[in-house]
Amino acid sequence: FQMEYGDRYQHVPKPKFDCLLFDVDDTLYPLHSGLSGEVTKNIIEFMVNKLGIKDNVLELNGKLYKDYGTTMAGLKAIGYDFDYDDYHSFVHGRLPYEILKPDPVLKNLLHSLPIRKVIFSNSNEEHVANVLGRLGLEDCFEGVISFETLNSIKKTDLLDDENDANFKGSKRSTIPSTGTDVVNSSSEIKAESPKTPVVCKPFEDSFEKAFATAQIDPQRTVR
């Protein structure tokens, strides 16, 4: 009996996945919370009040988001010059985070998952921290990959190393989603579209840097 069943339990198959990548906005909190609508409203106001864009602002915002993954990346691609921190401060710094409430059910669920859990967001790290704090999920994730992780303001090895160490924080082809990371199926940039200096999802270079930073095996990751 021991020989027959002992071997069976010694050869437990290795789990197919060992890491979950989570986005933040519209993933950890529901769309009906209204926070995403506030983000969009602030982006529109930034385009109008800070960049002086007056015509077809809603349409432009939608197209840039669709083509470049974020409106910020699209605005940079078509030639607008602005400070990243100013953008994040205007768009995220004025959000009513108090509308988000603690989610103990989600917290217990995340803690019950016996594999690595990592945040991967195009947003800045302060926004991510505010959302996690309001939801009560600060201790549910191993680390955060954010805008700052992917985009060093000064392109130096030192800052890149700092981003990698802190774990918070070109070819541009899309990588399809297999899980929680929502990617528009039509988001691939046309060959004639101007390039953006912003590294962000859903493009290949962002995933490559995220995987390297967090030491993630992409073949064993749900995203």
From TrEMBL:
Tell me which stretches of the chain form a coiled coil. Answer: none
Report the InterPro entries cross-referenced here. HAD-like_sf, HAD_sf, Pyr-5-nucltdase
Domain of life of the source: Eukaryota
Name listed for the protein in its UniProt record: Uncharacterized protein
